[in-house]
Write a structure and sequence with these properties.
Number of domains: 4
Helix content: 10-25%
Radius of gyration: 27 Å
CATH class of the largest domain: Mainly Beta
Number of strands: 40
CATH architecture of the largest domain: Sandwich
Distance between the termini: 69 Å
Largest sheet: 8 strands, mixed
Mean pLDDT: 80
CATH superfamily of the largest domain: Immunoglobulins
Strand content: 35-45%
């Protein structure tokens, strides 16, 4: 069971209620522009068969493949639009009426509006393989999804005298990935929702023999706990006489001394027996303060998570009618924790783009042999960035066969994402959950709104639907009448609490180039260490054009690929990844930092490895020879005779 499920259920409900507000505003603005006959985006008008509201719509076809390449029958397929705000009906339909695969594992999602979708497959006892999946799909795409049989943990729970305990909740808590690295974010609403729905198969309880069996687990390192509520706040948890106890971890331990169970998909770990300890634990109590929402609102949710990992231990709620907004957690074991509060409403704050959601910064607490009280979680308002996307078309595209798009695309198929410059800690639950809503798509007029943004310096990342396009500029209007527009690609956007930045313009251009190749070392062998390849603009005047810098991590065979590259002259720089970067879950491009750009240009000029990419050119099978840096050996400390 995913450790984030209880919070995800609460948070998704909050987000969906709030998203309805922004949906109404964006659609009304689009209708206003349509009535005025404007087409500010510069994109080609869509054909009648693809128009929003068309009965036929677009479709995505695919197949779910299981072990041995066989199709998986009756698998449930869910397709959630990236822009939930403008396509709420599609999400609701997919959630409550998922498409099922046929006996050969094939499926078709029809009647889709133009846009980008995240797609997941699920079946009882199976888990999704990410090997063939992409983050987003568009109508007209074909999909191959893999399902593999999940892992199983089974064992027995007994009391201090060795008698079986009947009806006690047991949960498997994933603490690390199978490669012994920190847990990776799923990053999409679709995958999180699949996890959340799968958790409703639980809670897993012992039978009349004290035996439990937990199935459908992904590969990784797990702790197994008995007792407690199995994740307070989860609707599926039923009443048990052991709910008020602090959990006991396998074999008979606290969470810090628990033994870990290593699982690979398809395997079963047996005899994971737990000797139950009756431990009442301690309590954590406090108050939620700070900003308040106007109008009807849902109850405030407060999450208790482990410090350092973000693994959720419990969730509780503050009823809307409670004036004091107090909260409390009982049966908490000694340890380091973080607390985070969130609240949402269907009402707007001060602007049409802002969704009504408040969050508190995570607060660290230590439980050591006694109760902890007086914790204050102060809610803060969230900000937003709104703007539009426009296209500079290529005038002579008809004269260049390479410039013709391989497929027709719509403006709604762009995916616009935000990423903050600061390093995100795994214990920051608000940041983790808000990141699920960091992606959006424009409407059919190119207008977009990115909401639920915390105070930070934010960067926009654009994922384009075809290889013929590249991002030319990302700018904000000048702050003063005689000032210059702000190059948001270079500096990012500094957003304050509750601030709503408007009129950002993202300009795209046709005529992009691309580069595919491999990195080889001596003997034409792929590098033995993880590396990234960087494209660095060689023109002096392009030194600070961040949109001209590209980077890609090489695969095990040394291969790399870069698409949507502006034409120009580039240096190629290959870099080995430091150990700390190999474990990062939220890597930031090196070119975002001015010093990073200087370093890349220095290495590029010294390497003499240069390539010129012409308009619409696709370079394949490029070979980049790499010589590993030779670290100087330490001087010998052994004394020599004279």
């Amino acid at each position: 069971m995913n450790h984030r499920n209880s919070m995800v259920k609460v948070f998704l409900t909050t987000m969906l209620m709030a998203c309805l507000v922004s949906a109404t505003e964006v659609e009304s603005r689009a209708q206003s522009d349509l009535s005025a006959g404007s087409d500010r985006s510069g994109f080609q008008q869509i054909t009648p068969a693809q128009e929003k509201g068309s009965k036929s719509g677009g479709s995505i076809k695919g197949r779910v493949i299981g072990e041995g390449g066989r199709g998986v029958a009756d698998a449930s397929i869910m397709a959630f639009p990236v822009n939930i705000v403008s396509n709420m009906q599609a999400m609701v339909t997919s959630l409550f009426r998922p498409v099922s695969t046929d006996p050969d594992g094939k499926f078709e999602l029809s009647g889709l509006q133009p846009g980008a979708y995240s797609i997941s497959a699920s079946a009882p006892g199976f888990v999704l393989s990410d090997s063939d999946s992409k983050p987003f799909y568009r109508p007209g795409d074909s999909v191959n999804l893999g399902l593999v049989r999940g892992a199983v943990i089974t064992g027995k729970v007994t009391n201090s005298t060795g008698d079986p305990i009947v009806g006690i909740v047991v949960r498997a808590i994933k603490v690390r990935e199978i490669d012994n690295k920190p847990l990776r974010d799923r990053r999409s609403v679709s995958s999180e929702m699949v996890d959340s729905l799968s958790s409703m198969l639980g809670p897993y309880k012992t039978d009349d023999r004290g035996i439990y069996r937990i199935y459908g687990l992904t590969s990784g390192y797990y702790q197994v706990a008995a007792g407690g509520s199995g994740g307070k706040g989860m609707p599926s948890v039923s009443v048990s006489p052991y709910n008020s106890d602090a959990p006991t971890y396998f074999p008979s331990s606290t969470m810090y001394t628990a033994a870990e169970v290593i699982l690979h998909t398809g395997e079963e770990a047996g005899n994971i027996d737990i000797r139950y300890r009756e431990n009442r634990g301690h309590s954590i109590a406090g108050t939620v303060s700070g900003a308040k929402l106007t109008g009807p609102q849902q109850g405030t949710s407060v999450v208790l998570a482990r410090a350092g990992t973000g693994i959720i231990e419990a969730t509780t709620f503050v009823v809307p009618s409670t004036a004091e907004r107090n909260f409390a957690f009982d049966a908490v074991l000694d340890g380091e924790y973080v607390l985070t509060a969130t609240v949402g409403s269907g009402a707007m704050l001060e602007g049409p783009e802002a969704l009504s959601v408040l969050v508190s910064p995570s607060r660290r607490v230590t439980v050591s042999g006694s109760d902890v009280t007086g914790i204050d979680l102060r809610l803060e308002t969230l900000g937003s960035i709104s703007g539009r996307v426009k296209l500079d078309p290529l005038k002579d595209a008809s004269q260049k066969p390479d410039c013709k798009p391989s497929r027709k695309s719509q403006i709604e198929e762009l995916v616009i994402s935000t990423q903050s410059e600061g390093k995100r800690h795994p214990e920051d639950q608000a940041a983790m959950l808000l990141s699920m809503f960091k992606d959006t798509t424009p409407n059919d007029k190119g207008e977009f709104v990115i909401s639920l943004l915390r105070p930070a310096i934010h960067r926009l990342e654009i994922q384009l639907p075809t290889e013929q396009l590249f991002v030319k500029s990302i700018v904000l209007p000048a702050a003063t009448p005689n000032g210059k527009p702000l190059d948001a690609a270079k500096s990012g956007v500094a957003l304050k609490s509750g601030e709503k930045l408007r009129e950002m313009v993202v300009t795209l251009s046709e005529g992009a180039s691309g580069l595919r190749g491999k990195v080889v070392t001596e003997g034409d062998k792929p590098p033995s260490t993880k590396m990234r390849v960087h494209l660095v603009p060689a023109e002096a005047e392009a030194a600070d054009e961040v949109l001209r810098y590209f980077e890609a991590e090489i695969s095990a065979d040394g291969g790399f690929s870069m698409a949507n590259v502006p034409p120009g002259k580039y240096w190629l720089v290959a870099r080995e990844l430091p150990d700390e970067e190999q474990t990062e879950t939220d890597h930031k491009p090196l070119a975002w930092d001015a010093g990073g750009r200087v370093g890349l240009r220095f290495e590029g000029e010294a390497s003499k490895k240069i390539i010129t990419l012409a308009q619409c050119q696709r370079v394949d099978n490029f070979v980049l020879n790499y010589a590993p840096l030779i670290k100087p050996s330490k001087p010998s400390t052994k004394k020599t005779a004279h």
